[in-house]
Every structure is written in C-alpha cells, then in structure tokens.
Amino acid sequence: MTEKDTHWNKFIEEICDRDVDTLSPVQKNAVLCFWYDSEMQNGGHSGYLENYPDTNPDELEDAILTVGNREIADNYRRAITDGEEDDIEETDNAYYDFEPSLCDCLEEFVWENRNVIFD
Question: What span, in angstroms and rounded, lies between the C-alpha atoms of 39 and 68?
C-alpha cells in the first residue's frame, strides 16, 4: 500500500465520522464531498437528498468547486433545482461519466492537503 493509500484510508476512518461542526474548513470540504460521492455511488441524487436532507446546497456546491470542478458542481445544482425524476436520472448518469471523478479529485485533495487534514 502506498503512503497516499494510507492517508486515504486514514481520512475515511478518522475524519469522515467526526461531527461536521468539529471540522476545519479544509476537512469539512473533503467530508462533504466524500458523503456526496458515497451516496451517489449507492443511490444517486435521490439517495443523497433523502439521506442528507439538511445539507446546505450552497455549501456543498462550494465544497465540490474546491475539491472537484465546475462541471460536477453544476451537475449537482441541476439535480437539486430540476429535481424531477427524469432530471435526476440524467444528472445521475452525467455524474458517473465525469473524468476525473469526484472521488479521484477527492483522493488528490486529501493527499495534497494531508498536513492540514491530519493536523
């Protein structure tokens, strides 16, 4: 296992389960994106919206912009503003096609910010 893999596992095990109010801004951006990507992989936008109904959409969009990119953030915004089932299916499918994926971006973000995330 590489050092990068070790940090990724440590992020999931030690940071993602913390109360979001205890996280630094860098940690919070990473965790919000982790939760979003995890739900997208398991239930798409409908699953995310059901399991995280109290999410501040602007906050998650900003986190995606920080960790990922504009294309992913715009897709998220489309899913929550045009939330009809067909639109969610369309935005779900678009999400799965992004390269790099949000997960790839997040792994790189965690690695690049390891000194801040694991302070």
Answer: 16
